[in-house]
Amino acid sequence: MNKDFYINIKDDREAGGSSSFFKEKVKFLISESQSNNKILDVGCNDGYIGELLLKNHNDMYGLDIVEKKLQLAKKKGLKVKLCDIEHQELPFPKNYFDIVILGDMIEHVFDTDRLLIKCKKVLKSGGKLLISTPNVSSLGRRIMLLLGKNPFLEYSTYLLSSGLPPVGHVRYYTKQDLSYQLKKHGFQRISIQGDEINLIFFQTRLFRSLLPTFCKALLATAYKK
Predict the structure, then answer these.
(1) How confident is the model at residue 20, as a pLDDT?
(2) Phi and psi of 49, rounded to 5°?
(3) 173-198 per-residue burial string, b: 16 or more CB within 10 A, e: under 16
(4) pTM of this prediction?
(5) Which domains, and CATH codes, for the chain?
(6) 167 exposed, middle or buried (CB, 10 Å; 0-12, 13-18, 19+)?
(7) Segment 74-89, tens digit of pLDDT
């Protein structure tokens, strides 16, 4: 992972007020995390989500590659460690956490298989992995492709993709691919839902349970045996 690139990425507290996907992701993580759990937020950024989970009496840990963001997370009450998850092992014992969160993180990592192995290693037996990631087959992206437009797939570290600046995505998931990969790594009781269906300036959550493959993002829950 390129540390210099991620230094300039927007903090979670900045994204929280403007992104509907971010709000749905937070609702999902709060609901699935419940209370009184030991939780690791991989790529915790400024600790915005961790601070919310702390309110439910969870024991929160955070990893990130950018030290200044870790300092913000530490001030919010997270127990933080500097870690390049792409090239380093997660700095915790085996079977240590009840929950591991990959919130908008797996799409930033080249070797996603190795990341899932690392996360599984630090999860307790019966522990839960929570993943949120953009859905490359969302209805909005399908329409953009049909019209010959780039559906927000990054091809540069500084050039715009359909008007948006790059945020470091190197992997893209469909519901089927994410479910298949989790199964291959031995996760069980896998559940993947969507956040909302988007059509450029129109979003709806009415049909997300019926049509998760059309939703803008995927929200996954998987358990370690």
Answers:
(1) 60
(2) -70, -40
(3) bebeebbebbeebebeebebbbbbbb
(4) 0.91
(5) 3-134+174-223 (3.40.50.150)
(6) middle
(7) 999 999 999 999 999 9
